[in-house]
Amino acid sequence: MSRAHRLLAGELAAALARPAAQQPDWPDPERARAVVASLSRAAPLVTPAETARLADRLAAVARGEAFLLQGGDCAEAFAENTEAHQRANLTVLADMAALLARRTGRPVVEVARMAGQYAKPRSRPLDARGLPVYRGDLVNSIEPTPAARTPDPARMLRARADAARAMAVVRDFRPGTRPPPGESGRYVSHEALVLDYERSSLRVDTSGPEPRLASGLGHFLWIGERTRDPDGAHIAFAALLANPIGLKIGPRTTPEQAVDYVRRLDPHGEPGRLTLISRMGHTRIRAVLPAIVEKVTASGHQVIWQCDPMHGNTYTAANGYKTREVRHVLDEIAGFFAVHRRLGTHPGGLHVELTGDDVTECVGGAGGLTAADLPARYRTACDPRLNAEQSRELATAVADLAAA
Ligand code: PEP
Ligand code: MN
């Protein structure tokens, strides 16, 4: 083992020994260890060269020369992972990117939430029936029985195999609309949540300012709102990665905390290494985001500012369906652009939950979906997604804001 390998192995062990929120309680830890060992022998899904190319593209976003468009299912599900579904999602993302590129005259970097988005953080450990909550197909089954909800480490093997098939679809995908000039490749991302899965495809990368660990499980990985304890395992793990990383920041984030994250996750000041994904809610973004942007900008780090207009705007409709209103989503995006325009910073990207399928999960939009329409085609395994029509409408609105 080289010195870099030894050092990183020690740092990884120390990171993973920290407290980790939202981890599955595997009933048979020995079996889970065996699964991780077997995953570690599988071929990586993405190459370090692709990840490095994305890092270059994200540096351009951080400098204000390009826009980052990220989107896909809230949760990928084994049963829904058909090629038709994946191609529909890639098509709507490509259409949105093409529209944005055409209207703004700037390249758009497209990153799918795909090929690994199988684990979900949850607000409560038990559901309304008193069963262990569904934590994504990587961990347990959505079926409401005690047996199906028991975490099963073998699901990590299925997730990895499905991710490999999804990656093949991504590689093979050619949109009808041409990608904008200068853009090549299409990238994948997911939330780095279940650390047994995330630790299973790491190799030492010495191409950066210090030896780091390149994840072979996705080009871009992000840390979610519920696992961003600054002293917890997820942040320490992300700090060791060579991949570009994202961090969700909710409305209770203080400017001081934001700067602390930026120092931990971008210690070498690499433009675009870190994407701060604000998910404040449409009523709060205008009040909360400015001080964060000002303080981080003053720190000298060049992060990407990305707006997730979905997760701060979720509510339960009177008929019990979890939903979001298109007008709230649009209002949060408008607030995001207004804040950055006023401060002279770059509104660098958008992170959305969407599908190319004709679902009825979010209300509003030109199609005029109401809460009464939700039961018709409510298919998500977790959060409500924009459908193809709502997504294209959103892209038009964003293009208006970005081109202004
Ligand atoms: C998500 O992106 O699906 C998610 C759970 O987001 P957040 O961590 O921002 O709540
Ligand atoms: Mn979600």
Automatic annotation (TrEMBL):
Q: How is the cofactor bound?
A: Binds 1 divalent cation per subunit. The enzyme is active with manganese, cobalt or cadmium ions.
- GO biological process: any one? aromatic amino acid family biosynthetic process
Per the UniProt entry, the Enzyme Commission number(s) are 2.5.1.54
Listed under catalytic activity are: D-erythrose 4-phosphate + phosphoenolpyruvate + H2O = 7-phospho-2-dehydro-3-deoxy-D-arabino-heptonate + phosphate
Query: Which pathway does the database say it acts in?
Result: Metabolic intermediate biosynthesis; chorismate biosynthesis; chorismate from D-erythrose 4-phosphate and phosphoenolpyruvate: step 1/7
Look up keyword DNA damage and say if it applies: no
Q: Where does phosphoenolpyruvate bind?
A: 113, 225-226, 248, 279
UniProt KW keywords: Amino-acid biosynthesis, Aromatic amino acid biosynthesis, Cadmium, Cobalt, Manganese, Transferase
Q: Record's InterPro entries? A: Aldolase_TIM, DAHP_synth_2
Quote the record's binding site residues for Mn(2+): 74, 311, 353, 383
Q: Which is an annotated GO molecular function term of this record?
A: 3-deoxy-7-phosphoheptulonate synthase activity
Write out the similarity annotation: Belongs to the class-II DAHP synthase family.
Q: Could you tell me what this protein is called?
A: Phospho-2-dehydro-3-deoxyheptonate aldolase
Per the UniProt record, the lineage of the source organism begins with: Bacteria, Bacillati, Actinomycetota, Actinomycetes, Kitasatosporales
